[in-house]
Amino acid sequence: MERIYTAVVTAKGGRDGHVNSEDGIIDMDLRAPKAMGGEDGYPNPELLFASAWGSCYLSALGSVGVRDGINVTQATVDVHIHFNKESEASYALSAELHVHIPGVDWDVAQKMADAAHKGCPYSKATRGNIDVKVVAD
């Protein structure tokens, strides 16, 4: 495997902390969401993860579109990252990717969505680790 790029981010303070990237592009406070005892108005790890996964996933979908000769430039994906309680001291993530490809029949869109999930690096990183549902809308 050939390494192409490395992102470096330093996190301090956990969910009520701060993250900043080595290049200075990211420099923000984080807070737990209100549903988890925090406060609204701040990013949280799940929002950042959903943003990163969604962006990466759409790039993978673009590759599938090129392969299949289907324009997916107007496609969107809504990434739902669920923070789940397994027990008193154990938590786990699960995810749903809701994919919309305008002008494409549902069965074709679902096949494309599944193919993009197979090739997306974030999807590969989570495969077998968390429950993921991919749905063409």
UniProtKB/TrEMBL annotation:
InterPro entries: KH_dom-like_a/b, OHR, OsmC/Ohr_fam, OsmC/Ohrsf
Pfam families tied to this protein: OsmC (PF02566)
Family, as annotated: Belongs to the OsmC/Ohr family.
The protein, known as: Ohr subfamily peroxiredoxin
Protein's organism: Mucilaginibacter pocheonensis
